[in-house]
Write a structure and sequence with these properties.
Length: 102
């Protein structure tokens, strides 16, 4: 399996961010071809050492890194990526990696 982790930085208007994410962006992301599982954080994102710069974390699971790259290159992926400018002005970091059970 492989994961795409989206780390959304804290927006100036968290309510507007949350409303847009739930009503528009998450439904777009769920159309990505090859998507196996979609999860998102609820409540505050915290760290052990300091205040977190993140507001929301999304976890998208695919069969492989190739499947993630294909999904992002697809029309649905391009539409989802293009939508980031509509609500994620504070920034988003995307991490892509293979996974295995430990």
């Amino acid at each position: 399996m492989a994961q795409l982790v989206a780390l959304y930085k804290k927006p100036s208007d968290t309510k507007a961010f949350d409303d847009y994410y739930a009503s528009t962006h998450a439904p777009l992301a769920k159309t990505l071809p090859g998507l196996r599982r979609y999860e998102m954080s609820t409540g505050p994102v915290v760290t052990a050492a300091a205040e977190s710069p993140y507001h929301l974390v999304a976890l998208l699971q695919f069969d492989s890194l190739d499947a993630i790259h294909a999904a992002l290159a697809s029309p649905e992926g391009q539409k989802t990526a293009g939508d980031l400018a509509n609500f994620a002005q504070a920034g988003v970091e995307l991490l892509l990696f293979d996974t295995k059970e430990a």
